[in-house]
């Protein structure tokens, strides 16, 4: 996405001492899409457990995720750059941690406009620790979407096409091709979002987007999962449990699914849910355990890098979740410290030239259940920022030809 100033506000992932970043609006998805005035909550753990001070800032961005021209006073009522005051240490856990919570709006600050935003978390030295995007919308237009199979014969079994209409009745749009922009997001992941798609045509107050190639996504596959809510009992995904400094959960070795038949099993599209049977207050009583992942070596991967990703690490490719080849077992292996709960994950490959191949291990299927979010942005002639005037969502569960 080209940007004039070049400072696209990408999400920054935290250092290794900050874990289990949960950021949500009123829904269960960890991807805050909130209507102006609704509340959202950020929660994270610091495993140094020394009650460090953390501060938050809010940045308003344009459609292309570069900071907008608005002053803080034009998009915030009150002030940000405040300390997060709601934190507590974990209770009786083997791995101590401090758990932090922040709700917005709060008594210090609330948002006054819609659009793209970035929430930034700083330590007491003013160093950025991590950041997360969120979107705020007004319900001014309606969006109806559907998911179709690709009509391109090369991708008929691997791609899904999102088609949708935007009805602007009751909202005055003079020049839709210039004033209205959309973003389409698969499974709440910004990295694969589609932008800059013009309406194909308009019928009265309807903007129609009935593309085939331009709005297509690879289907991928259902995520793998495991559940550690009961620390001591193995489940279908956990082969054995050991106890040393903390609990160790060894997952069964995963297999390659690109050449297998597609099989449906419900996932939560990459997300995770912290939960425990061992305590009442999940945020502060759930244990951390070391989860061991493994994948057999194959020439498909060669000398390329393999990573374990999911919402739990914001799909980041970091040294922490990079797999190491073990010559004795002939497998790629990784060990990650993760809070008790239900997790979705997958394996991705980064080739030597830097290209990322998300579905070499899992395969691509048009049947895969994926969620799609459509954001509608608006800026009138001479406007200072891009507002979001409507959202729509659709799912490939009912995919049609």
Folded structure, characterized:
With 401 residues, the protein is mostly beta strands. It folds into three domains: 18-137, Immunoglobulin-like (Sandwich), CATH 2.60.40; 142-219 and 367-398, Immunoglobulin-like (Sandwich), CATH 2.60.40; 224-357, Immunoglobulin-like, CATH 2.60.40. The protein is 3% helix and 43% strand. The chain contains three helices and 30 strands. It has helices at 72-75, 176-179, 282-285; strands at 18-24, 33-35, 40-46, 54-61, 76-78, 82-83, 86-89, 98-104, 109-111, 115-123, 128-137, 142-149, 159-167, 180-186, 194-195, 201-203, 206-209, 216-218, 224-227, 238-243, 247-251, 272-274, 288-296, 305-309, 324-326, 331-339, 341-350, 356-357, 371-378, 387-395. It has a five-stranded mixed beta sheet with strand order 2-11-10-4-6, with no helix packed on it. Strand 27 (341-350) and strand 28 (356-357) form a beta hairpin. Residues 1-5 have low confidence and may be disordered.
